[in-house]
Write a structure and sequence with these properties.
Blueprint (H helix, E strand, L loop, with lengths): L8 H32 L5 E4 L4 E6 L7 E3 L11 E4 L20 E6 L3 E6 L6 E2 L12 E4 L1 E2 L6 E2 L1
Parallel strand pairs: 2-3, 4-8
Antiparallel strand pairs: 1-2, 1-5, 3-4, 5-6, 7-10, 9-10
Length: 155
């Protein structure tokens, strides 16, 4: 076989990288197209975290559609609210969650209840298999993976 007709290792690496970028782009397009459907629902609750620039609609369908409300009876003023969000992919709504500080203000706009204000009490990292002890009917818990790109821990 002629050496001139064989692909070089750098050509193979470039092709693999282009495939990975294409798959990533397809996943993000899928996320944003499903997010449009969720945001059209005016009855969906919303979370606003001014200190890290988050203003997202909350869904109760899938983590792949943004910020997910705990499927249980997670209704403010009646039960603790538990919200999950990715730090990578699917819009990365909690990408900068590690930057919130004690005392920061978070807002929930909840249909039928109104606007609720929460203050950050703590930001902790625990192993992924830790059990979350939720308590207090007026508490809000935000959960994401840590470190970025890993599922080793939860923040």
């Amino acid at each position: 076989m002629d050496i001139m007709n064989r692909p070089t290792i750098s050509t193979i690496i470039v092709i693999i990288c282009l495939l990975i970028i294409g798959l990533y782009a397809m996943g993000e397009v899928n996320y944003f197209s499903s997010k449009i459907t969720v945001e059209k629902n005016m009855d969906s609750p919303k979370i606003i975290i001014p200190s890290i620039g988050v203003e997202e609609t909350i869904n109760n369908v899938s983590l792949n559609q943004g910020i997910l409300n705990d499927p249980g009876d997670s209704v403010p003023t009646k039960n603790p609210v538990v919200l999950y969000g990715h730090r990578t992919l699917q819009g990365s709504p909690f990408l900068r969650l590690n930057e919130i500080s004690k005392g920061d203000t978070l807002l929930l706009e909840w249909p039928g209840i109104g606007e609720l204000k929460y203050n950050v009490l703590d930001n902790i990292i625990v192993p992924a298999d830790s059990e979350l002890d939720v308590h207090g009917k007026n508490n809000l818990y935000l959960i994401t993976c840590d470190p970025i790109g890993s599922t080793e821990n939860r923040m």
